[in-house]
Amino acid sequence: xxxxxxxxxxxxxxxxxxxxxxxxxLANRAGVSQSLVTKLEQEMNVPNYxxxxxxxxxxxxxxxxxxxxxxxxxxSNIVSAKPExxxxxxxxxxKKNDYSQLPVKKDKKFVGIVLSKDIGLAKNDALVKEIxxxxxxxxxxxxxREAIAELLKSQNAVLVKGEQVEGIITSAxxx
Length: 175
Description:
Diverse_CBS-Domain; CBS_dom_sf; about 180 residues; DNA binding; CBS domain; alpha+beta; two-stranded antiparallel ribbon; CBS-domain; 434 Repressor (Amino-terminal Domain); Cro/C1-type_HTH
């Protein structure tokens, strides 16, 4: 979810100042005019999405070179469930490995996630496809740690994608 405009402006200004950049330097690096950056920070106008994105991505790329990314944090050993497996089969795997969730994979595609609380409430013969949650976010491998932490506030896990899905991150991986 995108932050409101006022929050976004404060974040851009704060990141610029933390990098010790002038408005002119940010504008040059982002390929926008200095007056646009000035007006944005003073909330004098609402620039178009493309311009704000250029500014924000310029700041993020500079900051993220020093921070951990999804590629750094992801566990490449993805244990998954199949939609046609039973609750009992998946429960054994979860207990054995001390997992609280498993992504669900059909053929070569991830189609959802099953949580321990869903498993606990289902009958032994229930199929994973009947109790799984239909989505699991897939993020790029260059996603910064802070963005992952924010996403995991509302999600149980995220998958990390480079050329293909290469790993999984849960809140435990951020410890």
